[in-house]
Specification:
The chain is an alpha+beta fold. The protein has one domain (about 1-160). About 15% of the residues lie in helices and about 40% in strands. The protein is built from three helices and ten strands, in the order αβββββββββααβ. Strand 5 and strand 6 (about 75) form a beta hairpin. The longest helix is centred in the N-terminal third of the chain and has 10 residues, at about 1-10. The two termini are about 25 Å apart. This is Secreted protein.
Length: about 160
Amino acid sequence: MMLLMALSLAAAGDAGLTKHVADLRCGAADLRVTSHALAGTTAPVAQSLTRRVGKKRVAVALEPAGSALVDGHRVRGRYVVSWACLTGAQRVRYVMLGYNCAVDPGDPHDCGGEKEWFRLLDTRGRFVDAGVPHDGDRRDRLYARLGIADQTAAGVKMAGVLD
């Protein structure tokens, strides 16, 4: 719906719409983030994540985004800005997604007071950290169990998806 609204604004000449496509190969997974942003804004108005299954692409659910008003434009409240492929225990692959919030903590629709955080997907596109806080002991124990604690502690090199 928001993409249609942005497309209609762009078609009317009120704003330009830019498209960013980023691909990531992670083990057997072939993933793509597609983002649409209005000219002059950082936060996308629409964003999707897909993975290749055979010859077709299948949608993967992103974190519920909501929307926020930034500089007079309606954008996704939460959006993916970066990602990386991690190899865990038994050579299992995980995709780390870096999220940003379109508004500052304390503003309406402020993403629970956080400006940035990470989420973890398996290569089938399912969140493996559902119900786990974005930081703290439970997150640390999950990363240790998955075999990625050392990588995350050393710092993960994330690739941008909005470049």
